[in-house]
Amino acid sequence: MSGAISDVAALAGVSKATASRALTGRGYVSAETRERVVQAATTIGYVASPIASSLSTGRTLAIGVITSFLNRWYFGEVLEGAESALRARGYDLTLYHLPPDSSERSRIFDSYLANKRFDGMISIGIEASQDEIARLVTSPRPLVAIGGNIRGAHAINIDDQALGREATEHLITLGHTRIAHITGHDAELQTDTVHGRRLAGYLAAMEEAGLTSSLHVLPAVHSLPGGYEAAAQLLRDARIRPTAVFASTDEVAIGIIIAARRLGITVPAELSVIGIDGHSYAEMFALTTFEQQPRAQGARAVEILLEQLEDTPRSHGTLTDDSRRELAEVQWPTRLVIRQTTTRPDPIE
């Protein structure tokens, strides 16, 4: 048995508009009414037509997502959270990979912005140039930026500089004075990036504690192998080896732990390690870290984006000037989880 939206509405005892909102998830409908409409649709075998919905709303029911990485845990988690939330609301996701320093970056960027087959955009960890930022925030479609350095858009961020300071202070409070920081390449030059801000937090905490003479900053590729390679270099000389390391991400921190074990260095008795992210492997490695729930960030970004699409005036699928005035800026909470990779240093330090 099959039917039209009018049949669903009649069976549920609501208007066609209410039935449509209940089935598409766009617009407010009480939980009781939504359940009644869904049951009615199931009873008569009604399946909403994306094409018809697109024609009636002027929207594509697709969201474009740009991400810096496809093979890093944080980015994958955000992407899964966003995709799941979009699917639940009847939207498709179009993914664009925009890696840093790619020779194809300009062409991809131009093609992405020229693409009008989506209603809004989500960026994940994009570190953009001033020209790229200007083009993104002036796009006729709403944008929610998660992390990265994009200003002037709806945004979800954690306080990276504060976390860098707190991670370092955790080690200082335990009594460590030889604390190294493994960060991203060019973090000292690119201060308005995630890793630049975390580095700034490390430097501020070390300076405040009077430990500037023992600063040790080492760049690395932000992956598990990158952390392993950096740690192998950092830890090879026992005479100058730090007693603690603040890793800019959990993947790097796990790489450090593996390298330390292979070098016969006991964690945490001889080397304390702390990271940032709340990686799914953190508990397995007993890693002390700051959890930030990236999957939930992706879902929240979808909520913010769809709120903009539903609540702002639109003309031919683009935002009006008035709808740009108020930006949602979410300061995402983090939580320090202390496990077994940080402890007081050996008294002979």
Short structural description:
With 349 residues, this protein is α/β, with parallel strands linked by helices. It folds into three domains: 5-48, no CATH class; 62-158 and 293-311, Response regulator (Rossmann fold), CATH 3.40.50; 160-291, Rossmann fold. It has twelve helices and 14 strands.
Describe the structure using short key phrases.
349 residues; alpha/beta; Rossmann fold; six-stranded parallel β-sheet; six-stranded mixed β-sheet; 14 strands; 41% helix; 17% strand
How would you describe this structure to a colleague?
By secondary structure, the chain is of the alpha/beta class. It has 3 domains: 5-48, no CATH class; 62-158 and 293-311, 3-Layer(aba) Sandwich (Rossmann fold), CATH 3.40.50; 160-291, Rossmann fold (3-Layer(aba) Sandwich). 41% of the residues lie in helices and 17% in strands. It has helices spanning 5-12, 16-24, 31-44, 50-57, 73-88, 105-114, 130-137, 160-173, 194-208, 224-234, 250-262, 294-311; strands at residues 62-67, 92-97, 120-124, 143-146, 154-157, 179-183, 216-219, 244-247, 272-277, 288-291, 314-315, 318-319, 329-331, 335-337. It has a 6-stranded parallel β-sheet, covered by helices on one side. Helix 5 (73-88) links the parallel strand 1 (62-67) and strand 2. The longest helix has 18 residues, at 294-311. The N and C termini lie far apart (78 Å).
